[in-house]
Structure formats: C-alpha cells, structure tokens
Amino acid sequence: MIIDEHIQKALLKSPLFQGLDETETDGIFHDIRFRLVHFAKKEIFTIAGMPCSHADIIVRGEMVARMMGMSGRVVQIDRLGVGVMIAPAFIFAANNSFPVSVETSEDTTVFRMRPDELKRLIDRHETIRMNFIRQLSNIDVFLTQKLRLVSLFTVREKIAHFLIEAARSQGTRTIRIDQSRQEIADSFGIQKFSLLRCLSDFVNEGALAIDGKTITILNSDKLK
After folding, report:
1. What distances in angstroms separate CA 22 from CA 17, 29, 137, one per listed residue?
2. Residue pLDDT, tens place only, 23-79
3. Which H, E and C letters describe 160-190, residue by residue?
C-alpha cells in the first residue's frame, strides 16, 4: 500500500519518527508492511483486559483512554491525537493486556503494523530505536504525574493545577477549554458537581472569570 501525503505528514508528527524528514522516511515507509484501519465516532477501539496485538499510530481523528474502578468510577487518562502510538509500552510486554478502555471521539484512522514489523524498524534504524525508548520513558513520567494528581491532590488542587498548566501551555491567562465539564471531571476522577462547585468557589473568591469555555485567571494566588 502506498502512503499518501496526508498519512506521511501525520506519521512525521509521531514521536516514533521524530528527527526524520520526508526524504529519510520515504524509503522507510516504502518498506513498511501496514494497513489503514478506520473507526467511526464513538466506536470502541479496545476494552481494558484485551490484548495489545498491533502497533497502531493515529493518523486521523482522536481517541480517549479511560479507566474504570471497581466502584464504577471512571477516570479519563488521556486524549490521543494524530501521531500518537497507542499503548507502546504494552506491544512487547509479557502481559500485553490493555489497562484502559479506548474509544474514538471522532472518526479516526490508525496506521497499523504487526509487532514484528515495528521490531524490524527499531532494529534497523537507530533514530527510531531511540525514539521508541524515549516514548516509553515519557509514558512513565506521565503516569507518575497522573497518579500523583488523581491520588494525592484535593479537588481544589486538581482544578487549580489543570488551569495553571493550561495557561502555561496556551501562553495566556485567558484560556480556551475545549473539553466539556464532564470530560474534565472524568480526567480528575471526580463528580461533575464537585468540579462545578469548585469553579463557582473560585469565581466568588475573585480567582477566575468564566464565560462558557473561556476561563480567565484573575488572581493565580487565590488558586492555591
């Protein structure tokens, strides 16, 4: 199968191919055995406990990874966009069962390789090998931070941390929040009511001004 320009650009956004340009990847992509798999919006990609049998990279659309506890409480772990390899740490694991359930949030296409094909890339290309190792390291850092946020922070601290990080990422105190209130609450493992009450408290205290999906941080000290 020939890789078209859109797919190639999406793959070049992947951390797996970081540092490679189109000229370098032309030959690499030409030798890759792969297929494109399409999923509709709100389609289940995988359920926690199912095996991770492929190396999948998102080349169009978005997915959401969620974890459910014994009590039924759902925590949104991450949103997975174009260029993201899904669960790279589990592809070669002895126990390769997905720890989370993953669902598409819009029509999505993945670039799918067999694990042995990914191994061939890693064995042949030093840059790809180091990129894959770096991905695994970054996942460990992300999960450590996520565990700390969900387990150790109070509701107020979780929301304050989320807003401050969003402001830092967007480079402005007036930030745009594209997720719904329910999605934000799920990412913290809290009830939507708790999120809304905390946001209301911040507004009443003069820390925030809220206009729909736009939130302005008026006084960051009051978020502490």
Report:
1. 10, 10, 26
2. 888 788 888 889 999 999 999 999 989 999 999 999 999 999 988 765 566 777 788
3. HHHHHHHHHHHCCCEEECCCCHHHHHHHHCC
Amino acid at 128: I
CA-based nearest residue to 107, from 38, 46, 54: 38
CB under 8 Å to 23, separation ≥6 — which residues?
A: none
Res. 4: pLDDT tops 80: no
Burial class (CB in 10 A: 0-12, 13-18, 19+), 171: exposed
Structural tokens at position 89: 């740490």
pLDDT at 149: 66
CA–CA distance from 18 to each of 25, 90, 132, 135 (Å)? 11, 21, 10, 11
- Total-model pTM: 0.69
CA atoms within 13 A on the CB side of 210: 17
Helix (H), strand (E), coil (C) string for 61-128: CCEEEEEECCCCCEEEEEEECCCCECCHHHHCCCCCECCCEEEECCCEEEEEECHHHHHHHHHHCHHH
Q: What band does 3 get if pLDDT is binned at 50, 70 and 90?
A: confident
Residues, the chain: 224
pLDDT class of 147 with cuts at 50, 70, 90: low
